[in-house]
Amino acid sequence: MFALSEPSNAIRNFVRDWAIEKDMPFFNARSQEGWLRTLMIRVASTGEVLVVIQFKEEHAEAREALLKELDEKFPEITTLQYVINTKQNDTIYDQDIITYSGPGFIEEAMPKYSGAGELRFKIGPKSFYQTNPEQAYELYKVALDMAEIKNDELVFDLYTGTGTIALFMAEQAREVVGIELIPEAIEDAKLNAANNRVENATFYAGDMKEVFTAEFIAKHGKPDVLITDPPRDGMHGDVVALLLELEIPRMVYVSCNSATQARDLGLLAEKYEVKQSRAVDMFPQTHHIENVVQLVLKA
Ligand SMILES: C[S@@+](CC[C@H](N)C(=O)[O-])C[C@H]1O[C@@H](n2cnc3c(N)ncnc32)[C@H](O)[C@@H]1O
Fold first, then answer.
1. Is 15 within 8 Å of 22 (Cβ atoms)?
2. Are 243 and 251 in contact (CB under 8 A)?
């Protein structure tokens, strides 16, 4: 059930064999030599497949040949994209992503918390989405159970990605506010809200420590409940400091890195008490987990 979804293996094996046969070299990060850099394959629960190939430099003829063969051999691929990245590092967030075929995004579907219908999420190549969609649903249910949202409450979703947690919880809340670094992800979050007819969600793009500030709270109100789901580095010290200052009645901290979560919880312990903690097996057969913690303001 939790094996890598096909056609992922077939695609990566095809690209590897193609490169060996055509004598097109794989990129070596240490020597910075080679051509084929990274291959990203995302298979959505809707069956849509997004493939992004990253090349170190442009070899138009070879690139065109590879993309054409891939496109023809795998009709399952709904969006095929590529990046020419001449930088030293592999990150594609600051790169132009060129669409070879398809609409340039995939759609995920997730049942609603209420069980009535589903939410659809548009996901572009630069947007975060949980790697294991079935377990993402389990994770979000645990997070929402711990959030104990009432329908007159204002909820913040920090590090919202494409707005998935915010939209999942919007049905329970008066209003939700999502904040996220990647502007393209926030564009997707806004579209996802409109496509799912969610009218009580607003989204803001920017670095958390610069957007989530006392001024932001003065403008948008103090949340009754806050969900935070930071990247592996955990939360910036300024963000933790504001959470201590704000004294929010309930918070839920979702983390894929227990070490940084423990560090942040240690800092938050000055004002907040851990009431519940539950791990979700998001990455089966690895030592990684998602851990969800409910925090309440100390009396
Ligand atoms: C673990 S993901 C969570 C995404 C979302 N909650 C979900 O479940 O799909 C962390 C998110 O934090 C964003 N992020 C990373 N650094 C950030 C920063 N400094 N400020 C705001 N968002 C940041 C990433 O782009 C990513 O979307």
1. no
2. yes
Reported pTM: 0.88
- Secondary structure letter of residue 81 according to DSSP: E
CATH architecture of the domain 8-104 equals Beta Barrel (2.40)
Q: Is the pLDDT of residue 43 over 50?
A: yes
Looking at CATH, the fold of the domain delimited by 108-297 is given as: Rossmann fold (3.40.50)
- Provide the sign of the torsion angle of the four alpha carbons 183, 188, 191, 197, taken in this order: negative
Q: Looking at ligand 1, which residue's alpha carbon is closest to its atom 2?
A: 231
Q: Tell me which residues have their CB closer than 6 angstroms to ligand 1.
A: 128-130, 159-161, 164-165, 180-182, 185, 207-208, 229-231, 256
Mutation pick for ligand 1 pocket among 128, 142, 187, 292 (CB with most ligand atoms within 8 Å) = 128
Please report, for the chain, the start and end positions of each structural domain, with discontinuous segments joined by +.
Answer: 8-104, 108-297
225-228 and 154-158 strand pairing: parallel
Structure confidence by residue, pLDDT tens digits, 260-295:
999 999 999 999 999 999 999 999 889 999 999 999
User: In the annotation, is 256 catalytic?
Assistant: yes
